[in-house]
Amino acid sequence: MKVFVFEFVTGGGYAGQALPGFLGDAELMWRALVDDLIALPGMEVLTLRDARLAIPEQPGLTVVATDAARCRSDFMRCLDAADAAWMVAPESGGLLESLNRQVEAAGKWLLGCRPDAVHIAASKHATAARLAGAGMTTVPTFATPDLLTGAVVAKPDDGVSCEDTLLFADAAAAQAWHDTHPRAMHVFQPYVAGESLSLSLLCCDGQAQLLSVNRQHVGLAGDHFEFHGVTVNALGDGDGRYAALAARVAAAIPGLWGYVGVDLIAGAFGPMVLEVNPRATVSYAGLRAALDCNPAQHVLALPEMRPCRGLRPVTLEMAHV
Fold first, then answer.
1. Where are the beta strands (DSSP E) in 131-176?
2. Which of 52, 128, 198, 252 has the fewest C-beta atoms under 10 angstroms from its C-beta?
3. pLDDT exceeds cutoff 80 at 153
4. Superfamily for 122-135+193-317?
5. Exposed, middle or buried: residue 93 (CB in 10 Å: 0-12, 13-18, 19+)?
6. pLDDT digits (tens, 9 = 90+) for 161-200
7. How many helices (H) and strands (E) does the chain have?
8. Contacts (Cβ under 8 Å, ≥6 apart) of 98
9. For the domain 2-111, what is the CATH code?
10. Can you tell me the distance from the alpha carbon of 145 to that of 258, in angstroms, rounded to the nearest whole number?
11. How does DSSP assign 23-37, residue by residue?
């Protein structure tokens, strides 16, 4: 089988402009996906690579170096040559949804979430509404801060990671910022004290398998939140609460398929969902070392969900510039 792995940042998405400060996150995800797939018997990997980055050579891997002039045509050529495709890209601006639709339109096996599910998960407001409608506990999410009390968090509705995520002392401060940034498509949430966690899941047809519970390392620089890394498989799930939460998320958004990340806050009243990431996240890169399985092999085995056991915590530290 030949799989086209396209990671947007490393694969030419920023061709013709400066590479972003979170290049390291993207590189980590791309490397993990490629290595996990190549480790499987009979697997070939085809990938695009920004020509400014190092071009690795290894058996089973074909790398197409690309630039701004050729990126679109190179993408279509790689997609045409592959049997399956695994897309990793921001949900912002409908990007991931569009890429996944292109894979389906080309008649290839999409190793990722269905476009309609990506459309929901791309919006924090829509995700919160869908999950709350299914009876789940989510962090309340609003288009304006005027209904909130206490400290307020503002973040892009379709943003990724801690991108442009701000903390305000109160709703008045958040409203003042909102009034001076009328074009900002942000949502507003109450600041919830607790541990920042994420779940790594395998999803298929409304079902979910919990792979790991991860501790996210998030800090504040002034009024901006920053992502510093993650400890994969940091916590167990002895009472099954996180597996139950995973099952409810998958049932609420049945088009989730393959690897999915769920961000949450473990507060005084239990876990509260923040957002759903319908694609590979940084945590994916630690799974093969943290578990007794190859996560890519488990994705390819869907709809069968094979047993997978945690072995050890694995910490991935990130440095953004």
1. 152-156, 166-168
2. 52
3. yes
4. ATP-grasp fold, B domain (3.30.470.20)
5. exposed
6. 667 889 999 999 999 999 888 778 899 999 999 999 999 9
7. 9, 14
8. none
9. 3.40.50.11770
10. 35
11. HHHHHHHHHHHHHHH
